[in-house]
Amino acid sequence: MKKEYYKESTDFLKGIAIASVLIGHYMNMFFLKFPIKGYAHCLISIFFILSGYGIFYSLEEYNKNFNLKNIFNFYKSRFLRIYPVLFLVLIISYFFFNRELNLLRISGIYLQEFWFVSSIIQCYLISLPLYFCLKKFGTKKFIIGISVIILLINIILFPHLKLIRSILVVKPLFYVYIDIFLSNILLFSFGLTIPELLKKYSKKIPGKIKSTAIIISLAYIIYYSFIFKIYKIIKIENWIFTIFFFASMVVFIYMIIPKKIVFPFKKLFIILGIYSYSLYLFHKLFYITLTKIGITSQGSILGIFWTILLFPALLIICIILEKTIKIISNKKTFNIHKTQQANHYHPS
Length: 348
Prior knowledge:
The protein is an all-alpha fold. It is built from 15 helices and two strands. The chain has one domain. Strand 1 and strand 2 form a beta hairpin. Helix 1 packs across helix 13. It starts with 6 loop residues before the first helix and ends with a helix.
């Protein structure tokens, strides 16, 4: 199944999403009167869905021989993916940008400015039981089951949202994404099902239906992302629109992944997608640094030019950082494996 991962398509979609986040945050920081805000927040759902999609393939590899060692290795790989870059950002933020550094932030449980990281950690923690449920009950029952569970949680908890917010004393984004409790888990779960759905139904769906589905779902995604103001107080009547948005996003990703991407600057978006995690963590520090040294400022059009001109420097730093961490991680894994082999053939 690994050959069906369609990595180019997933990296491209992540590149589109992170580019939207970078632009959205820049406009929020330097152009407060910009009329269109919040659209990038909606597109973060791409990351939740594709994270579930990618985790499925990772767990498929471990599923060939599931034991405690492989479970440990799976979670270790997730740890090495998330925490080294996160630790570096937190340390830089503490020493150079006067940000708080405590156990909650270091653990990733409560990252106010990096709420997505905290949300994706929730998904990773329960990815194993979700995967086993998917395998045991099948795609249809799994989708219905997880949808019903999330629906019941929302029916029970939504009337008590103010009380929950006062008890947890954290932003709603940690447990409410776009109007729905634990929608990060829901989207991640839908992402888990996409590989199985592609395997079963992708070749059976006529090309015209696929094209129509892509156009309709993309139209609704654009409508929802640019019309709804999602940072305001959550209203239960928005649920139905949000559910349609999630469904449209899943359908769009499902239909677009197997297709060959033809798009201007495709390679650039693919690179952005590959290093989207580091870009997400570092881009605000990059913007703040540009402000401190006087390159950009509130409402500065010239600042946009300089930010674009200097952005490759940020991208290169992120590439070097992620590649270095990957090399170190792979080297440690190789050394451990080599030691285990030596112990196997030469027991003490």
